Amino acid sequence: MQVFAIANQKGGVGKSTTAQNLAAGLWDYYRKRVLLLDLDPQSNLSQICGAVTDTQDSGVVTTLEILTGEGRLTDNIQQLEKYDIVPASMFLASIDGRLTDPISRSYKLKEAIKGSTRAKEYDFIIIDTPPALGTLTANALTAADRVIIPAQADILSLQGVSQLYATVESVKEYCNSRLRIAGIIMTRYNERTRIAQDMNKLFQNAATQMKTKVFETGIRENVAVKEAQACVKDIFSYDSNSNAAKDYLALIQEIFDYDEPIDEPTDMPIEQEAE
């Protein structure tokens, strides 16, 4: 089992979209089991995946209860068609008031994953984070093996990447020495524009200083992504021939060093192995 955090202090760069489509593509094309953990109080990942949240059902256990110890990761995973998920809660925004011990509060998610027999059944755990460098992102980075950084070709995204790097280095020093940056993904990318070309050079320079890379695969701007989310579908279920689907598949192959797909996506539910 490998744990990946999707992070960037800048909002609107495609963190939730990336988390969902990595999980969907890993199942569709490689039959890898993925658990999604939503740590963003905005619950964007939970919503686009069609998960039941605590705003719909007050009895739902979310990542908030996992962090506070009021719920166990083993017992409270929602099984969806292609992947499983623990949804976020809007009350995650108040997490600092609930986790008052400054020493232990960054380790809560790591401890929950380590103590869950169910978590070990997955090939990958992918954690979506909020656009902030606080307790929630610290928990994700402390629990992760690798961090993936989505970014748009603009100066604010570049600043967000630089600020995240400082946080990653701090987490590596004090909480998680094995943490590494897998790379930077350029999202909503149009390589034909001058600004995109210029910003790509700046991101390449930043990646070199961070001892990582900008992935060769960028995610092109594509209306199919928003249409898929409006239909509560991943990009492969919505339109597997779209540019975005092709880009996310190529990205999966690059991140995880996979060869050609072993399977093709299907719009029909796939029965997962009995647990």
Plain-language structure description:
The chain has a single domain, classed as 3-Layer(aba) Sandwich (Rossmann fold). α5 runs parallel beside α6 (135-143). The protein contains eleven helices and seven strands. β6 (146-151), α7 and β7 form a beta-alpha-beta unit. 40% of the residues lie in helices and 12% in strands. It has helices at 15-30, 44-49, 63-68, 95-98, 108-114, 135-143, 155-174, 194-209, 223-230, 235-238, 243-256, and strands at residues 2-6, 34-38, 78-79, 84-86, 124-128, 146-151, 180-186. The chain is of the alpha/beta class.
Topology:
Elements lengths: L1 E5 L8 H16 L3 E5 L5 H6 L13 H6 L9 E2 L4 E3 L8 H4 L9 H7 L9 E5 L6 H9 L2 E6 L3 H20 L5 E7 L7 H16 L13 H8 L4 H4 L4 H14 L19
Parallel strand pairs: 1-5, 1-6, 2-4, 2-5, 6-7
Antiparallel strand pairs: 3-4
CATH architecture tag: 3-Layer(aba) Sandwich
Give the averaged pLDDT, no decimals. Answer: 91
- Rounded to an integer, what's the Rg over CA atoms? 18 Å
CATH superfamily: P-loop containing nucleotide triphosphate hydrolases
General form: globular
Helix and strand pattern: EHEHHEEHHEHEHEHHHH
Total discrete domains: 1
Query: What is the CATH topology assignment?
Result: Rossmann fold
Number of DSSP strand runs? 7
What is the highest CATH level, the class? Alpha Beta
Strand content: 5-15%
What is the spatial order of strands in the main beta sheet?
3-4-2-5-1-6-7
Question: Considering DSSP H and I runs of 4 or more, what fraction of the residues is helical?
Answer: 40-55%
Largest sheet: 7 strands, mixed
What is the rounded distance between the termini?
16 Å
Number of helices: 11
Low-pLDDT segments: 268-275
Quickly give the structural class. alpha/beta
